[in-house]
Structures are given as C-alpha cells and as structure tokens.
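Protein: Winged helix-turn-helix transcriptional regulator
Species: Diplocloster agilis
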Amino acid sequence: MIDRCISQECLGTTGFSYTLSLINGKYKMIILYTLMEFKIVRFNEMKKYIGGISYKTLSSTLKELESDKLVHRKEYPQIPPKVEYSLTERGKSLIPILDAMCEWGENNRIENSKTAK
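Structure follows.
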C-alpha cells in the first residue's frame, strides 16, 4: 500500500472535483432530480415545481446543464413555442447517485432520527 501525502495531492485533478464542477450550483441538482422523477418536463412546469427559482436562473442553469451534455432540450416549431427538457444518456448515468442521495435523505431526516430514539 502506498502512503499518500496531502501536500502532494490536488483536489482539482480528481473525478470527484470534475463531477462536482458539473452538478455544483444552487439549482442544478434540483433540476436533475426533477428530470429524473418526471422524465420529460416543460420549462414552465419545472419553474412551478421548483418554486423560488427565477425564469432567468432556470434558463441559464438549463443552458449550463445542456452545455455539459447532461440535459437535452427539444424545441417544437409552433406558436406558442414549446420546449421540453429531459436527461441525456450522460445525465441518466447520474441517476444512481441521485437515488443514493434520496435514500440517504430519507434515512437521515431529523424527524426519522427523533422517532428512532
């Protein structure tokens, strides 16, 4: 076994850091969770579901996730415009991580731990 020294390491070069760079942000994980749960979601539906997010923030966050190839945007050429969002295959590969976070949250809620005592 090789002993590692933290002074010789760099967090920025780890897979953890790369993953975090893609999902870090106030609403990115919420958007990914929403798409995981509901598969295909229109912009206004997502805005209503999330709640306190502004139109500008939702739009820019979706563009970032699309740029990172985690979210697919499908625009229909009609009036009024219709746009749907879904997870790409790359985005779907995050589902086990999101599921694990959901399970952890359910198992570790404050009210659950109070009733267990």
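Remarks: Residues 22-110 form a domain with the Arc Repressor Mutant, subunit A fold (CATH 1.10.10.10).
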